[in-house]
Design a protein that fits this description.
heterotrimer, A alpha+beta, B alpha+beta, C alpha+beta, A: alpha+beta, OB fold (Dihydrolipoamide Acetyltransferase, E2P), Ribosomal Protein S8, Chain: A, domain 1, 3 domains, 5-stranded mixed beta barrel, 4-stranded antiparallel β-sheet, 17 strands, flat, B: alpha+beta, Ribosomal Protein S5, domain 2, 6-stranded mixed β-sheet, 4 helices
């Protein structure tokens, strides 16, 4: 006897029974406890045929290999820099991963990145003890000059970026701001002050309404109203 | 028995629960039961100092209970906690730890800060109940929620959710308990006063039953915060 | 990097825009809720933007200070609990908490907001002690203004607890007798960043401040207390300008209480 206890898009609490019987498969955020499948944490259910997945809606950022994040330099060591990742774990940016230039031993590392600098980096390694390595060598990875940082819920980042970057591109178009979105929920924006305000308001709105239907259209209308100009965007599946 | 506030023996005081009340925190919740209001805020997983407390196998749950100076019914509460607050912080941690799974956060800490803004008995229980919601709100992996409630014995009668007058003036035996529904187990048990073995068993059974009522309120408050209707209504018991 | 951050804020201030879209001398939404906490003799919760703070008034009977035998006691204590901000640590009050306590205290004490002689029950023997505690629930900039607004609102609705025949306090019963409040000081903090003056700072703005002036003003527009903070010195003209801004803004805030 297999029964599904929840529907797609239901909000569930930790320990909630999602399904009974052996016919369903637990996926991310869910687990099997005897004959039942339960939720590991608070989140939204996503059911794909027999696979039950939980989409987290809250919680701190958990560093993952491959993530591009906006990190902050918090320490300068002999062999590189230590950066804050906006998680429980700091990361190390080694000398050889900092730039394609050759950095001599004993060089003044603050010439490259100083304390408090924000950098767009990519996570290359996460050990079981959560020791993290990041690199600055890669397309687009660089020190962020000027601009300012906004912090959002890291779980809303995919909605801010949109399918193939469509959402963030639309915001950039409307506000003419430079925008870089880190997987860790740190967003860097740089533009004219009034436009930066609109950018931040838009991002906050996406954060609030991330899981509602018709989000892209709502945001498009919001941007048009705020900037007073029409947007040309490709129709996209929400 | 006619109780001082005319409640029936097994009647809870009015309860209000709200999730997401402290913007800076990762997760937070407020629980008001009668004249007792507890607010819990969760920060983490985050870096743990001092280093010797770090556990490479899993994260640490740390609880801090505090009564605000103006929260008492009588004298001002001297800031600085003191022995009582330290003990309550400890039993709170022990009450909640069994449901927490921090294997994914080695060496890190999850801090729960519980503050009482108003007190009328049952404070540690309100704190635990609020803390469980706050931890779920923070996306922490949990096997279940935890609910706590004070049961009392006065003149041979079992009274549920005793208030300040019943506890202090009338000298009821105070039995705070915490209950984990999925395990059907008690994770907090203290007794202040005399009680027979049979009465204790009865008290635990009744306490468990009433905890399950409060459990429904916790779940509703958590789901309400994340419902797409995006209401910010408080969940009321009546 | 701090130079970069400063430059970016100044770029916005030059255009008359704050990071949240406000004008330079505009407050975030201010909400005042008197009587927020039921056990206290008086209380209030004030919300300014995302900053939320509770003030509670408790009263007790004490012996007066030897140099003021006919006056009651007044104390303001602020605790920056870690619940309200990830940067706050547990432990005894640090510099920030102490400054908040003393600045709010000064506004109330120096304006003679409470007629402390009316708190005297027996000269040299027994006086009322009024204790105001400030605890933020969420600290997101401008604790000075929010805290002092909460304190004065709490004092405004505070009532004496009942005294038994033996002269002991019965906290369970409150009288209808209000505290002898004769002045209602409002504190406004004005910040200087570069050449610009702003009020009601966001945390990012507090980080970049050059100087700040917290001014306590009574209803007749008189100044009764001032605190200068920040690492940069101020010219006399600047101080005068900031005081003028504070007087102006205090009228707005006063409408809330």
């Amino acid at each position: 006897m297999e029964t599904l206890k929840v529907k797609n898009r239901n909000i569930v609490v930790p320990g909630e029974t999602l399904a009974e019987g052996m016919g369903f498969l637990p996926s991310r955020g869910t687990y099997r406890d005897g004959k039942t499948i339960k939720a590991k944490r608070l989140g939204m259910i996503s059911i794909d045929k027999k696979v039950i997945k939980l989409i987290p809606l809250s919680g701190a950022y958990m560093p993952k290999v491959g993530d591009k994040i906006i990190a902050k330099v918090i320490d300068i060591m002999m062999s590189g820099w230590r950066v804050d990742t906006r998680s429980a774990y700091s990361a190390v940016l080694g000398l050889k991963d900092a730039t394609s230039d050759y950095i001599a031993k004993g060089a003044d590392l603050t010439q490259y990145f100083g304390l408090g600098d924000y950098v767009l980096t990519q996570i290359t390694n996460v050990t079981s003890q959560k020791l993290i390595d990041v690199t600055m060598r890669g397309p687009g990875l660089r020190k962020l000059r000027g601009g300012r940082i906004i912090n959002i819920n890291p779980h809303k980042v995919p909605r801010v970026i949109g399918k193939e970057g469509s959402m963030v591109t639309m915001i950039k178009q409307a506000t003419e701001c430079n925008i870089l979105v880190g997987q860790n929920g740190r967003i860097w924006i740089d533009g004219e002050p009034e436009k930066e305000v609109i950018t931040e308001e838009t991002i906050n709105k996406i954060e609030k309404e991330a899981h509602t239907a018709g989000l892209t259209d709502n945001i498009k209308k919001f941007l048009e109203k705020k900037t007073g100009k029409k947007l040309e965007v490709k129709k996209n599946n929400n | 028995m006619t109780r001082v506030d005319r409640r029936k023996n097994e009647e809870l005081r009015p309860i209000t629960a709200k999730v997401g009340v402290i913007k800076n925190a990762e997760g937070s919740a407020m629980l008001k039961i009668g004249g007792t209001t507890a607010i819990a805020a969760v920060y983490g997983p985050r870096d743990l100092y001092p280093r010797f407390k770090q556990d490479p196998k899993k994260g640490l749950l740390r609880c801090d209970y505090n009564m605000m100076p103006f929260s008492g019914h009588g004298d001002r509460v001297r800031p600085g906690g003191g022995r009582r607050s330290k003990e309550i912080s400890m039993v709170t941690q022990k009450a909640i730890n069994p449901v927490i799974d921090l294997k994914n956060c080695p060496n890190a800490v999850v801090d729960v800060f519980i503050e009482l803004t108003e007190t009328d008995a049952g404070t540690r229980c309100a704190g635990i109940t609020a803390a469980a919601m706050a931890l779920a709100d923070a996306g922490i992996e949990m096997k279940d929620l935890v609910i706590a409630l004070s049961v009392g014995m006065l003149d041979g009668e079992l009274l549920v959710d005793i208030n300040g007058k019943e506890d202090c003036e009338l000298g009821a035996t105070d039995i705070p308990i915490a209950y984990i529904p999925s395990m059907d187990k008690i994770s907090l048990l203290q007794i202040d006063g005399e009680i027979t073995r049979e009465d204790l068993k009865k008290a635990l059974e009744v306490g468990k039953k009433k905890c399950l009522e409060i459990y429904e309120i916790q779940k509703k408050a958590l789901k309400q915060k994340y419902s797409t209707a995006n209401k910010t209504e408080k969940v009321k018991s009546k | 990097m701090t130079k970069d951050k400063k430059e970016h804020i100044l770029k916005a201030l030059k255009k008359g825009v704050r990071y949240d879209g406000r004008k330079l001398l505009e407050y975030r939404e201010v909400k005042v809720e008197p009587g927020f906490v039921h056990g206290a003799e008086g209380s209030a919760k004030v919300t300014i933007g995302d900053t939320e703070i509770i003030a509670g008034v408790k009263m007790a009977l004490e012996t007066p200070y030897p140099d003021t035998p006919d006056k009651g006691n007044l104390m303001v204590n602020a605790e920056l609990r870690p619940m309200s901000n990830p940067e706050f640590e547990s432990g005894p009050p640090g510099e920030q908490a102490i400054e908040l306590s003393r600045v709010v205290d000064r506004g109330i004490r120096e304006s003679k907001a409470i007629d402390q002689e009316k708190l005297c029950l027996e000269k040299g023997e027994k006086v009322w002690s009024v204790m105001i505690d400030l605890v933020p629930l969420n600290a997101s900039g401008n604790l000075f203004d929010a805290g002092s607004l909460a304190a004065i609102t709490a004092l405004k609705n505070a009532v004496f607890p009942k005294l038994t025949e033996e002269g002991i306090i019965n906290y369970d019963e409150k009288t209808k007798e209000k505290l002898p409040l004769q002045k209602e000081p409002i504190e406004v903090t004005v910040l200087k960043i570069g050449e610009f003056f702003i009020v009601d700072p966001l945390p990012e703005e507090e980080e970049q401040l050059d100087a700040r002036l917290t001014v306590a003003i009574t209803a007749d527009n008189k100044i009764c207390a001032v605190q200068k903070g920040g690492s940069e010195p101020l010219s006399i003209t600047e101080i005068d300008t900031m005081v003028g801004i504070a007087q102006d803004k205090s009228k707005e805030l006063r409408k809330k209480i």
